[in-house]
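Batch queue: ligand-bound targets. Current item pairs a single chain with magnesium ion. No template structures supplied; prediction is de novo from sequence plus SMILES. Inputs echoed for audit trail.
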Amino acid sequence: MSSKQMSDRKVAYLEEVTKVYGEGRNSVRALDGVNLSVLSGEFIAVVGPSGSGKSTLLHILGCMDIPTTGTVEIDGEPVPRTNERKRTELRGEKIGFVFQSFHLLNELTVRENVELPRMFLRRSGEKKLAEIGELIDKVNMPRAVLDRRPSEISGGERQRVAIARALANDPSMLLCDEPTGNLDSANSDSVMKIFDGLNEEGVTIIVVTHNPSVADHASRIVTMRDGKLLGEVGE
Ligand SMILES: Nc1ncnc2c1ncn2[C@@H]1O[C@H](COP(=O)(O)OP(=O)(O)OP(=O)(O)O)[C@@H](O)[C@H]1O
Ligand SMILES: [Mg+2]
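Prediction returned. Tokens below.
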């Protein structure tokens, strides 16, 4: 655990967040009064039964969706409810997302996939971004894969490339939804080792998982049930 890297700076702040899908009798309250502060450098695991609201929480943290009521701030900036363009910008600058099923584009090479988030980056010039080769080093892949296509590498390698892509915009937070859900235990371990290393360097990580051995890597475990955050287990 990278306590030396942790600070009091709030990377994300949720206050009384609810999310209701649908209307009337068919509506689903996916989040129900969630309060959460994520500090810079934290490694949080989100656990809980299927349907408890974990992915919804991650989408709202990642500015991919907005709450029905409540407040969301990323790096101290309120996430705008109505200005979708601003929200997309915020996401592009501050968020890295890793999915269970990798979401790489097969028409592109590995290098192009990793570069992709940078096309959406408003270049304020203040961020010094790593070279694509350095990102591939970080996820323990040989640079030779840069010219291959995702279909030409293994599932475990694809997820490592997806992590490199998620890091390309030097995000404030890395959000991962079941990142090891499609991997065998050896590949899961290598992905979790990468997360450990990144967290040691100060990257804030939030991982949704059903797997207790994945949650073991976190410094804080939050449990969801019926759209609510239950008590927390810290280290
Ligand atoms: N786009 C949507 N429209 C309507 N209902 C939705 C939508 N997305 C999620 N839900 C509902 O909201 C609730 C929370 O879903 P969510 O995907 O956040 O759960 P989860 O904890 O990630 O589950 P899992 O572990 O199965 O991935 C569920 O009841 C789900 O059916
Ligand atoms: Mg989910």
